[in-house]
Amino acid sequence: MTEPRVAAIIASTLLTAACGGFTTVAPTAPSSTPASVRSSVSPAPTPAPAYSIGPDVPAGLSSNQQVFSGSVGPLIPDAAPCYLERYSCERYLFSMDRNGAVEVTLTWEGGERAMLIQLYRVGAGLVHEDLAPRGGAPTISFRRTDLTPTDYELRVVNMEPATTHAFNLTLTTWK
Fold first, then answer.
1. Cβ atoms 165, 114 nearer than 8 A
2. Average pLDDT over residues 153-157
3. Rounded CA separation 156/115 (Å)
4. What string of H, E and C letters represents the secondary structure of the chain?
5. What CATH number is given for 63-174 in this structure?
6. 24 contacts: CB under 8 Å, gap ≥ 6
7. What is the per-residue pLDDT across 63-91, written as a single tens digit (0 to 9) for each?
8. Could you tell me what percent of the chain has a pLDDT over 90?
């Protein structure tokens, strides 16, 4: 016999033994199946989280609500920018004479990401900054319950420098 024939006979014998000789052996684990062949089972949908604008206001505080309507347009050459040296804004000052809370709601006409709201401690820096969530209405709402007695400033920032946006701002303070 020649060597190729011997190799073919040995390979055939091994293949027969490997495939047909172990008919009584049970599998010990599932065979691996490529992901493209597996049936896909979608997990049960999880409910969307309930949207909360902030913690509850401490009991015993009295509220005061102010509503402002206005518009903020493109940055003009004579006006100082108030955000990143390129965006214009409208500013609203208020004071807290004791510890308290604030709730702010900003709505506007325009795209969902066209406006930004910032809460500053005058002379001390940024306290809170917020954008509308993607895919939502052009609205921003937040509540802060950790305000200390000092002067504050709300900044309504136009994030689209070539467009004017009309807005409504509701500021509720609890003292």
1. yes
2. 95
3. 7
4. CCHHHHHHHHHHHHHHHHHHCCCCCCCCCCCCCCCCCCCCCCCCCCCCCCCCCCCCCCCCCCEEEEEEEEEECCCCCCCCCCECCCECEEEEEEEECCCEEEEEEEEECCCCCCEEEEEEECCCEEEEEEECCCCCCCEEEEEEEEECCEEEEEEEEECCCCCCEEEEEEEEEEC
5. 2.60.120.380
6. none
7. 999 999 999 988 777 777 787 778 899 99
8. 47
Q: What is d(CA 113, CA 140) in angstroms, rounded to the nearest whole number?
A: 10
Query: What token pair was written down for 84?
Result: 């990143």
Residues in the chain: 175
Strands 165-174 and 100-108: antiparallel
Angstrom distance (rounded) from CA 76 to CA 31: 69
**CB atoms near residue 138 (< 10 Å):** 17
Instruction: Quote the pTM value.
Output: 0.67
Domain ranges of the chain: 63-174
